[in-house]
Amino acid sequence: MSTEIDSAPSSLESSVDSRERDFDQLASDVLEGKSISREDALAILNCPDDEILSLLAAGFRIRKRFFGKTVQLYFLMNAKSGLCPEDCHYCSQSKISDAPVPKYNILKRDKLMDAAKIAAEQGAKTYCLVISARGPNEREMTAVETIVPEIKQKYGLDICACLGLLTREQADRLKACGVDRVNHNLNTSEDHYADICTTHTYADRVQTLRHVRDAGMEMCSGGIIGMGETHDDIVSMAMDLRDLGVQSIPLNFLNSIDGTPLQGKKDLSPQDCLRALAMFRFVNPDRELRISGGREIHLRSLQSLGLYVANSVFVGDYLTTKGQAPEEDYQMVRDLGFEVTTSVGD
């Protein structure tokens, strides 16, 4: 996996800005099986605002080839909140955060089952079980191994576990109990990583993804846009995810929470978010691309445009922040003429 960063991103971004790009031709190249270059990816991120609709139309050709007009819904459950020993600067649950978030150990069976019932009722295909931790302890592993088979048997939901850093033995145990995929985000580029976390490394995260892959589960991994990274950093992350073979990519937009080191940081426009989503689709054409945290804040009234390149969204709330009402998401999908991929029969 290559994670080299261009030595002069500012001059490269400037030169890309001055060149026109035929995004429709670029989409045709992707549909013929060609991988786009770093230069082309940067051109997408530098697409002028008045050309964004053309960019999205080109990206929709790729999305439609692989996913039609379907949208998959994910439901997120914060099964353990706060109490995390890591120092991820964006996270309200980290040890350096002063944000007033709930703090509790892994929830009991009844609450996890109640949340699974809500996920099924809201039309979600995947139930995401998340804990705040460096990695799961034995009690947490046992709780997951116990609840996953019951959820799958009763509600037919796919299960995505987000438990922090994993050993190969832990990954094997998750596979054995029925976990379908594991989420572990790269979050940003290798070069930018030390600026957002010091208690573990980018390489640690990559190693966890390799354990997940080797155990035979799908990899769910994406990142957060808006943490002070360069365009080159965003492209590097997208290409690293491609090279790792990640099947599902959640793209978050920083929700700067008071009490965290990144509080007050609001650098993104709706157009920036759309450009990033489009670039990830061109780089990872046949991979599930999910519009994730921060979409309501940063995309605002342009959220629906994101689904011309992305093919899934979280429905309901996030870990410690609120999302929009599920009915608004269903209406958005209907208004586009798209359809939700349900959890039964797909």
From TrEMBL:
Pathway where this protein functions: Cofactor biosynthesis; biotin biosynthesis; biotin from 7,8-diaminononanoate: step 2/2
Cofactor note as given: Binds 1 [4Fe-4S] cluster. The cluster is coordinated with 3 cysteines and an exchangeable S-adenosyl-L-methionine. Binds 1 [2Fe-2S] cluster. The cluster is coordinated with 3 cysteines and 1 arginine.
Biased composition range(s): Polar residues: 1-15
Xref: Pfam families: BATS, Radical_SAM
Stretches the record annotates as Disordered: 1-20
Source species, domain of life: Bacteria
Cross-referenced Gene3D superfamilies: Aldolase class I (3.20.20.70)
Domain Radical SAM core: 66-295
Cofactor names: [4Fe-4S] cluster; [2Fe-2S] cluster
NCBIfam families recorded: bioB
Protein name: Biotin synthase
Organism this protein belongs to: Stieleria varia
